[in-house]
Design brief:
Elements: E1 4-6, H1 11-19, E2 25-26, H2 41-58, E3 67-77, E4 80-82, H3 88-98, E5 102-112, E6 118-128, H4 134-142, H5 172-176, H6 180-187, H7 203-207, H8 214-217
Helix pairs in contact: 3-4
């Protein structure tokens, strides 16, 4: 069985990939996240996932001979890419902009195999936000949680709960940064063993059943 390297420092991506039953090591890969001229959000996400995977591969060691998985998640509102907030004030601004509106979350995945093959996939979810109050925003920003997250929020945050979940029909794991089913679809052709089998993409909308990932993070109001 080939070694697998996750080219991400995200604790949430590590948890999600582990839920799929994949054994892996972590070797973060860096990429410059500034969009290129005329680059679409979809192209940006794909490029960054690929660059992160390549950076991890080039770091040497086990990554040179492993199956490397890179991922990048971006938030898009009316065509504008909304990245991570610069500071607390910017986080407040972003959350106010997203409030009560539906935006897109794009996660691109790239797999590099030991023979030099490259495969990329993109998963998109439409995310409706609650009409949360300014006081809720202030309390959430004060926790520091939004400062390292695209769009300045976490869908799984147990108290803020920014997403209008009754209206959300997409993939929770995608919004969290790693659509597990899509990742497994890319990894399994390379001999990677996994225990979770489920259609890729927006799992809940696809089979009208509860997503197997969501309960891990919403049991008794906990983020898992």
């Amino acid at each position: 069985m080939p070694a697998v390297v996750l080219a991400s420092a995200s604790p949430r991506r590590r948890e999600l990939l582990a839920l799929g039953g994949v054994e892996f090591t972590v070797r973060p890969g860096a990429a410059t996240e500034t969009p290129l001229p005329h680059e679409t959000p979809e192209a940006l996400a794909r490029r960054l996932s690929r660059e992160k995977a390549i950076a991890a591969r080039q770091s040497g060691g086990e990554a040179e001979r492993a199956v490397v998985l890179g991922a990048d998640t971006i938030v898009v509102l009316e065509g504008d890419v909304i990245g991570k907030p610069r500071d607390a004030a910017h986080a407040v601004e972003l959350l106010q902009r997203l409030r009560g509106r539906t935006h897109r979350v794009l996660t691109a995945l790239t797999v590099l195999d030991p023979a030099g093959g490259v495969a990329t996939d993109l998963v998109e979810s439409a995310v409706p936000m609650r009409d949360y109050s300014d006081a809720e925003i202030a309390a959430y920003v004060a926790t520091g949680d939004p400062l390292d997250k695209a769009g300045a929020y976490a869908i799984q945050h147990p108290r803020f709960q920014p997403v209008d979940l009754p209206r959300f029909t997409g993939c929770v794991a995608n919004v969290m940064g790693l659509p597990v089913c899509a990742a497994l679809r890319l990894l399994t052709p390379h001999g990677v063993a996994a225990t979770l089998a489920h259609p890729p993409g927006d799992c809940q909308a696809y089979d009208r059943a509860a997503c197997p990932i969501a309960p891990k993070f919403f049991v008794n109001g906990s983020s898992g």
